[in-house]
């Protein structure tokens, strides 16, 4: 698609509410419209590089080079490119799902080809409302608190429920629905995976967006241009044709799609956070220089800590690519150990990096004047006089630098990012669990036995003392 075709495709009768108002056209809303236009520029940029071909986000990675190219594209693009991991998750899970029903694999392949032909974008629809979290799905006081099949006919199934935290839900075309966790016998109605067009009858989205409201967008250099809206998606007796159903009651396979999505979601997150880590370092160094504190030892130490953070996140990304493995269908997938360990490290230490940045920058991150203040001819001389620090660092430059840091880390967008990076991809516990599962603990135990001479008939091995 071209960017204009993408924007036109969003005017399809979808039901999206923002700030209590049902929007007749999401592209006409100031916040959602900016986000949509940002995606549209990405469509045009990709199309300019592939004028007669298929969008490269639909290339199934078969080699390490393919995987690297895909993750490079994720870092350079809007988030809807990363969200195509929803269909990669289906492809990754297809061989396992075929053991439950061979038709599922064929449906997934047909769905993928259809979406590639139409060049559409997706939302990953996984997290249920959950209700009382001490109770399983079937014992909630309202059975719809986990999305479920409530009816079926000769053509398909009917689903009820709601899914939370749906990134870019208002601005995509397809909702890829999957169970939030492994279901147990007796919970067959909740073991459902399917694909639903956003404008399907019975689908309503309640959107949120961190874009600035009622203020000068120039004081929000990032969120004033584009943000990633989220939504709660409600399914109220939504009919799904069987050709779009990829799991229907097979509890043994209910966690397969979510697990596959978790892998792609986490490696995409690592790719994004590698870039974000570099941005944090860049902002810290610029504001330290502007404040005249870049040579102070404790400031240099904080920036060094941020550099190490950014480097280790990128190293984890590189390891997950280099150690990639092939699925049964020949698709290459990131290494689970390194992808999960890197995502955990990136998310767990991100708040500390933000703290370092705020400590270096100072309180003006929160209190710097706005661009409207600077436009006032009576106020501008004071801003120029008192925000400057040295020759080459005038008040305007320093004010804009504070705006950038605030917008990315300390305002509506920054608050969303702080929560999002912690929770995306399943939260820290999920990454710890998968990392432990894929770590070679037996090799580590064997190393310890050899170091201690605990193996019968074996000489103690050399201790890795790190002294070269």
Question: Would you kindly provide a written description of the structure presented here, covering whatever features stand out?
Answer:
The chain has 16 helices and 13 strands. α3 packs across α7, α8 runs antiparallel to α9 and α12 crosses α13 (395-409). With 468 residues, it is an alpha+beta fold. The strands form three sheets. Strands 1, 2, 4, 5, 6, 9 and 10 form a seven-stranded mixed sheet that branches. It has a four-stranded mixed sheet with strand order 3-7-8-11. A hairpin with a 2-residue loop joins β1 (15-18) and β2.
What is the rounded Rg? 25 Å
Q: What overall geometry do the principal axes of the alpha carbons give? A: globular
Q: What would the average pLDDT be, to the nearest integer?
A: 92
Main sheet specs: 7 strands, mixed
The proportion of residues forming helix, as a percent range, comes to: 40-55%
What is the topology?
Layout: H1 3-9, E1 15-18, E2 21-22, H2 30-49, H3 64-76, H4 79-82, H5 85-100, H6 102-118, E3 122-125, E4 127-128, E5 148-152, E6 156-164, E7 174-177, E8 192-197, E9 203-208, E10 230-241, E11 245-248, H7 256-291, H8 297-322, E12 325-326, E13 332-333, H9 336-361, H10 364-367, H11 371-375, H12 380-387, H13 395-409, H14 412-423, H15 427-438, H16 441-451
Parallel strand pairs: 1-9, 3-7
Antiparallel strand pairs: 1-2, 4-6, 5-6, 6-10, 7-8, 8-11, 9-10, 12-13
Helix pairs in contact: 1-2, 3-7, 5-6, 5-7, 7-8, 7-9, 7-13, 8-9, 9-14, 9-15, 12-13, 13-14
Task: Give me some keywords for this one.
alpha+beta; seven-stranded mixed beta sheet; four-stranded mixed beta sheet; globular
